[in-house]
Amino acid sequence: MKELLRRIAHSRLGHGVSDLVVRRYFFHWQIREEWGRQEFFANAFKALRFNGIAGDYAEFGSCSGTTFFLAYREAKRHGHNAKLWAFDSFQGLPRPSESDHHPSWIEGKMVTTVDEFHAICRKRGIPREKYDLVEGFYEETLPARSATDAPPDIALAYVDCDLYTSTRSVLDFLEPRLKHGMIVAFDDYFCWSAKQVSGERRAMLELTTRNQRWEWTPYVQFGWHGMSFVIEDREALPT
Ligand SMILES: C[S@@+](CC[C@H](N)C(=O)[O-])C[C@H]1O[C@@H](n2cnc3c(N)ncnc32)[C@H](O)[C@@H]1O
Q1: Is 94 touching ligand 1 by the criterion CB < 6 Å?
Q2: Which residues of the chain have pLDDT under 70?
Q3: Count of domains in the chain?
Q4: Is residue 26 in some structural domain?
Q5: Are the beta carbons of 218 and 227 closer than 8 angstroms?
Q6: How far is C-alpha 148 from the chain's CA centre?
Q7: How far, in Å, from the CA of 91 to the mean position of ligand 1?
Q8: pTM for the predicted model, two decimal places
């Protein structure tokens, strides 16, 4: 019996079956992760609308358009009038530095071109006038925008750029745009490595240590990876 099972495992049939199992496993996880994100966006836009927090949706890391579409759909569903912004190199991840140690963050991974991104938006029914994109590496595009440059008013910032260095550039850009009641979400908040804390979490901790004006109140955790915060103005908190 053991020998028979061993033969099947090494046969074409065996390989086919194990391939199917692997595919089903990843498919299953993709769905679970998408549900987690969908639940997050539903909660976030419900809360923003209910609490009267206006402003745009700014996404840092947009490639395949999955979260961009979820944000569009949930904003619309909850009657929130956010314009959407996609910030991405559209060339995939930059070269990770020493401070970006992680087995899954590999230079050039996750490329979607600008044309492909527009095509995804079209296919998913996101009207062109509802969104804008800012193409290029954050280290170049973000410092070129002053605090009053678009988008100056953000209700929900979604940080999904994996790397510590990328997130640091994003948070430098967001710092003058932080406002009471907005939500900031990190898709990779729990993506640490054997050597380092999660890059997104590390960049956030640096910001919250140097800038004490804002309380980062834990909001919704989504999936095994993501975490979000409501920004509260400490000056508005009772003493
Ligand atoms: C995990 S993907 C984003 C996935 C996307 N939210 C989705 O649902 O399809 C990470 C993205 O971050 C972008 N990215 C990371 N670091 C960047 C940087 N420094 N400048 C510009 N884009 C960056 C990559 O191009 C990549 O598209």
Answers
A1: yes
A2: 1-27
A3: 1
A4: no
A5: yes
A6: 23
A7: 9
A8: 0.90
